[in-house]
Specification:
The protein is of the alpha+beta class. It contains two helices and eight strands, in the order αββββββββα. The longest helix is centred in the last third of the chain and has 23 residues.
Length: about 150
């Protein structure tokens, strides 16, 4: 009986970890663009539907170095009233977001004058819960089940 219980708890933990890792692949907003000399753009995205949840999100700005690195680049994510994060160079930051709210992403960039072209990418995706959280949750459930089992036997 103990072996069956351990196997069940381990199976549930593995399934929860797999579910957490699948959740990590949800991309909310993505843009890749090639531009000449200098550019500024602003766009909006809306968190809604399809497994999207409130919580932490990661915004990533990439300089694809095509054909040469950009002289300057940056981005910001805002709501109508609040700056949630900003970059003055390629990189990433995390911010908390709520479902059914509109967010704005702004980009600025200037390509190397000798190259006259720049290629950048923006990606905003959900941040997954660490596997340790899923393992901890399955362990707590297992301990609760064992405690309940002892009370029934007594």
């Amino acid at each position: 009986m103990k072996k069956a219980f351990k196997t069940a708890v381990m199976t549930i933990g593995a399934l929860l970890m797999a579910a957490g890792n699948a959740w990590a692949n949800i991309v909310i907003y993505e843009k890749v663009d090639l531009f000449e000399t200098q550019e500024f753009f602003s766009d909006s995205f809306f968190l809604c539907c399809g497994g999207v949840e409130s919580g932490p999100y990661r915004a990533t700005l990439t300089d694809f170095d095509f054909p040469e690195a950009m002289v300057s680049t940056g981005m910001a994510v805002t709501t109508a009233t609040e700056l949630l994060g900003r970059l003055d160079a390629p990189g990433s930051f995390t911010f908390d977001a709520m479902v059914d709210e509109v967010y704005h992403v702004s980009f600025f960039g200037k390509a190397d004058p000798s190259a006259s072209f720049g290629l950048y990418g923006i990606e905003i995706s959900q941040v997954p819960l660490p596997a340790a959280v899923w393992l901890f949750a399955s362990g707590v459930l297992g301990l609760a089940a064992m405690g309940r089992r002892r009370q029934v036997q007594a």
